[in-house]
Amino acid sequence: MNEHIIFDLDGTLIDSAPSIVESFIYAFASLGIIPSKTITSEVVGPPLMPTLRMLAGQDDSELLQQLAAKFKAHYDTEGYKKATVFPGVEALLDTLSQSGATLYIATNKRDLPTQKVMKHLNWGHYFKGVFALDTYMPPLAAKPLMVARILDDYQIDPAQAIYIGDRYEDGLAADHNHLDFVMVTWGYADQVKTQLKANWVECLDVKELQSHLMTAG
After folding, report:
1. CATH code for the domain in which residue 42 is found
2. Full-model pTM
């Protein structure tokens, strides 16, 4: 099996969609702004500011900052606590940890709520490193760069590592860094069935993912 396993977080290990959607709706409602599209779980996954820009349908920096502040105030205090673990995930993390694999998280979620989620779920002992774009200063521009930093900082051979996520962009981050990639379909997959690349592996449930991870590498 792979020595190093890097996970996306939202849509891969946890279901945070209801609380994130709730916080987006709160942000727009509190400022009396009608979003340019209906806020559903489809918006979960990308970084906060691009998502707010898309939902607002405009690029007014001051307005976007106000929306971001409202979102953070709601999500960072109570919203993050509503995240639920996908069935079978905790048993998977137990199994992988006991097998000797080293686990990491690379997420578009901001660092503050990510660390709060880790503490809330008592998951700190599973992961050698937990990283967000703004874990670094200045914040990184995109997930491929974050995965590259993890590989470099921990001196990880890409041939001994694998990345697991639920969105097309996760696969691109893996490809950018010459990593094997597993696309899981229980999260917020953005119609990936027609987009899967030949070198990507698709797993329909956690049991299938565990079987693949225990034999891959």
Report:
1. 1.10.150
2. 0.91
